[in-house]
Structure formats: structure tokens, C-alpha cells
Amino acid sequence: MAGSVPPNRLATMSQRISKFLSLVLRHKPDTIGLNLDKNGWADIEELLSLARENAKIDLDYGTLAQVVAQSDKQRFKISPDGQKIRANQGHSISVDLELSQSIPPDVLFHGTASRFLENIRVPGLKAMQRNYVHLSASRETAQVVGRRHGSPVAILVVDSRSMVADGYRFFRSDNGVWLTSDVPASYIKFPDA
User: Fold this and answer.
1) What pTM did the predictor assign?
2) First to last CA, the chain
3) pLDDT by residue (tens digit) across 69-79?
């Protein structure tokens, strides 16, 4: 698929494939009839076949591996044997990513569009349709994430040290995203505070 494709067209194709993978590996595998195991893994051959048959996406193993390897956010992971693929985090379906509890840095960050601040001030950060709240170890990463939701971007500073002391659990996904069930507003420093 990617053989002699011009770079700008290849980038567009990669983005389209990445969005497709997010849909079927994080949210709606049934859209194409894909089966995920309890840990979120899908058989790559089945995925490729169903992508062609049910989504009309001409995807081969090489292109899939290239999209996974070149993803700036490393959203997906191919198993060591090269037979399976899964999303690293961001699921709205129930899967066990086999994450071990980890101690985060003392402070984590969450980027969001400024227009959402008032909706966060009282309840804090909630997982919403996902299984976890996603947090970043760096302000820069949070800035990039926040831009996806609109501009101007607000960076929330999370007192993860106090959260851990109070019994909250954190997990670190394979691509470095910090995950927790929720972040009450009392642990958040808002940009105007």
C-alpha cells in the first residue's frame, strides 16, 4: 500500500489507518466483526482481512507495522511474536491491559481546551467514556494533547503525590501515558489559580 506513495498522501493514509485502528481496537471492534481477547489483543491476520472485507480499507501487514512504528503517540503495540495488535490505552470497552500500579512523578499534567475548564472545576477530571483519565508527565505533551480539543489550551497541574498519599492508584501505559480512575478538583491547580 505504501510503496511509492508521495509523502503527503502517505501521511493522510497513515492518519486514516490510525483513526480506523483507534475505532476498532479501543471502542467498537464489532464495527467490522473483530474479536478482541480479554487483554485487548486482536489477531493481525483477522484484522487485516476484516479491514478489507468490512471497512474497504486495503491494509497489509507492512503498512500496519509502519503506521504503528511511526505513530508519534505510540497508541498501538504489536505483540513480540508479531501476530497480535492492541491499543496501549484509551479504551471505552472493558479490557484488562495488565498494567501494574506505578508511582507517578509528584506532578502530572492534563491538557484541555479552555472552554472545558468550568465543567472541570467542581467534579474534577472524570474518565467519561474511557476507562481512565489520561495524564502526561510533561507540560509539553499535555499542550499537544490539549490542542486536539481546541484552542486556547489550558494546562491543568495535578498533585499526583498527594493523590498517591491519599490512596489513589496510578498506572503507566506502554507509551508513557499516566492513567488513574479520576482526579478530584481538590488535587488540580487550574491555570488562573
Assistant:
1) 0.73
2) 50
3) 987 778 899 99
The grid coordinates listed for 177 are: 501515558
Which of 84, 59, 89 is CA-nearest to residue 73? 89
* Residues paired with residue 113 on neighbouring β-strands, in sequence order: 153
Cell of 193: 489559580
User: With the C-alpha atoms ordered 93, 109, 101, 69, is the resulting torsion angle positive or negative?
Assistant: positive
Give the pLDDT mean for 5-9. 61
Q: What are phi and psi of 5, to 5 degrees?
A: -80, 135
Per residue in 35-49, is it b (16+ CB within 10 Å) or e — as a string?
A: ebeeebbbbbeebbe
Give all domains of the chain, ordered by start, each with its CATH number. Answer: 7-87 (1.10.10.970), 108-189 (3.20.170.30)
Residue 181 is given by DSSP the state S
